[in-house]
Each structure stands twice: as structure tokens, then as C-alpha cells.
Amino acid sequence: MSKKAVYQLSARQLVLLAFASALIAVGTMACLSNFGGLLQMRNANVAQAENAPTPTGISDPATVSDEQNNIEVYKTLSPGVAFITTSEQVENFYGEEMETEKGTGSGSVIDAQGHILTNYHVIEGATKLTVSFGGTKTYPAKVVGGDPDTDLAVIKIEPGTDKLTIVPLGDSDQLEVGQKVLAIGNPFGLDRTLTTGVISGLQRPIRARNGRPIEGAIQTDASINPGNSGGPLLDKFGRMIGINSQILSPAGGSVGVGFAIPVSIAKRVVPQLVQFGEVRRPKLGAVLYSVEQLTEQGIKMPVAKGLLIRSVSPGGSAYAAGLRGLSQTADGEMLLGDIITSIDGTPVAEQDDVYKLLDKKQIGDTVEVEIYRSSKSQKVTVKLMPLPASVQGRPPVKRQ
Fold this sequence. Notes:
By secondary structure, the protein is an alpha+beta fold. It is about 20% helix and about 35% strand. It has helices spanning about 10-25, 45-50, 65-75, 120-125, 265-275, 290-295, 315-320, 350-360, and strands spanning about 10, 35, 80-90, 95-110, 115-120, 130, 140-145, 150-155, 180-185, 195-205, 215-220, 230-235, 240-245, 260, 285-290, 305-310, 325-330, 335, 340-345, 345, 365-375, 375-385.
């Protein structure tokens, strides 16, 4: 009777594994400077912006000069660009709580009810929000929902009888490098500033502040600076194609390399933010380590590529499907957990690969996960579920 190889971890390897996990967590952060529909909505929001007619006041760009097009887009859409001011509660030297300004950002009105789309990092940690649209009038705002994974958030004002300008949503899936774009925002507190440029690149890899990858970012040379975050990136017809979010800059100022989150992501995320206050994504519910990175740390692995399951979350998708994390034998030796090598036939080697695959799935979907266990490969069907609130690892966004 032939023996099957059992991979065990020595005490030294356990130390290396713990050290490697710390390196992996740190290594996933990109060196970018960040600045601060699945279900039917109860109220109009993204649907209103999507179905809004082409803004009146903007001529056919083919019939006017480039300068005139800039003027018309700005005059027509800038009234719908919000100047967001955030405050937070802090303690002074004497232990007394006081309110202080935290920062400023931008946003876009997406419906007549007062919902405003912005970046999550603009409102993160704020205890008070105010919004203005130029002039001296301000509106108190509340957080409706936020999604750290895509760096998008929705806040809301009560416009009363005031008529709001809705910024219509365009199509970010049909963009081309070289296409003209316009950015409106509030850089350095200078309200409703217009900058222009072109699309410099597509499908750029950027990351949210929590390290999660944001797919398909739009790169532009339109000047973006602190305060532009959350503002719209528009095409020449005045349609929002992206949400300005990040710049790549050694000194913190614009050097002509800015990034916007595609509006296609907002169309998918915003309905859930308005309805639930969060995005309810399916989660695998497992702590994963890259096999390649573990191998580089000197840990012997039975396969060249894949994701080792360190542990599974009780009540999560992986747990329910019987996937296994590291375990301990009776004599104290640690045995390797399952190694995921592919999901739905797509090889996975990094955690980003899993994020990208699951981001296209819905809660209740099933995926076929190929694993390496006990010296052989096998396939396991996993039903995708949200991660239980008790193990999500971060508090939900507080809806004000």
C-alpha cells in the first residue's frame, strides 16, 4: 500500500508563515496618493442619472470650437457638482470635545432627491458633512452608504424646493485613449474648478485605501489635485464617465497622472449603497496566502502556484463547502490546509485574482473551486454567501 505525502510545517516554517503573512498584507498596498444594480431602489437615484436626457445647453461638439464646448459643459454641469466639507470630533489638550474641519472633497448630484455620489475616502471618519454648490448657501448632509472596496460613497441633502442639477451618467465601457475629458471639482478649496485633458490610458490597476484592487481605472492628464476627489470626470457631451479618485505624485500635487473610477462600477455599486448602506458581496470566507510568496520565504509547498487556506470563517462559503485551513495533528504538527488552484477554471495565484472573480458574482451563485488536498487535485462546488457580520473585520458604514 503506497503512502501519500503529507506536508507538515515545522516550528521554523510556522514562524516564516506568520512573517510572510505580514509581508503579504503590507505588500498589497499600491504606492498611490489617495485624496480626501442588483436590486430595485425605493427612490430614484442612478436610474435618474442614467435616464437623464442629454443636457440642454451643450451643442453638438462637432459644430462648435473646443473652447466653446468647454464653456458649455462647465456652465451646464458645474451647478450639479457639490463642494463637500467634512468635520470630525476631536479632544483638545484639556480633554474637551470640539469639532474641527477634517477636509474637503467633491461630488455629483445623481437625482432630484439630493443623493450625491462621491469617494468613500472623502467622507471616511467624518462626523459632520456640509454641501454647497457655489455661493454662501450650505446644506447639511448625511451618509447614506459607503464602500471602501471601490472607494465610492453616497451622501444625501434635503434640497427642499431647490431644483438640483443632475449629472448624467455616461458609458465608461466605450472609452478610447485620446478622447477629450473634463474634470470639475474643488481642488485646494477652490470651488467648482474646471480642468481639461484627454484619456491617457485605460484599465489601469489602482487600489482603494484598504488595499483592494479597483478594476479598469481611467488614467487622465486633466489636472486633479486634493479636493477633486469624488468629482466627475466628464466627456465632451457632459456625461459622467468616471469619479476622480487618485493621483500618482511624488510630491502630492498634480503631475498629469490622475485616475478616475469608471462610472460602470458606480452603476453597479450605488443602488446597493442607497438601499442597504453597503455593498453586499459574496465572500469566500477564508484567509488566503499566496503559494509563490510563501515559497519565496522558504516554506516548502507541494504546488508552484495557488492560494493556501490558512483558516475558514465559521458560517462562511468556504466553511459550508468543507474547505479546510491549517490543522494540527495529535502530536502537535501542523498540516497544510487546502490549496486553491483555480475558480471556475480560472487559475488563481494572488488574492487579487479571487477579488476580481467574486466581484462579478452575486450572492447565491455557485463556483467550482479546484483545490489541492492530500497529494491530489479535486473540485468542490461552493455556494457564495456574504461573510457573517461577526467576522467581517470592519464596522459597517454608519448611516446618519
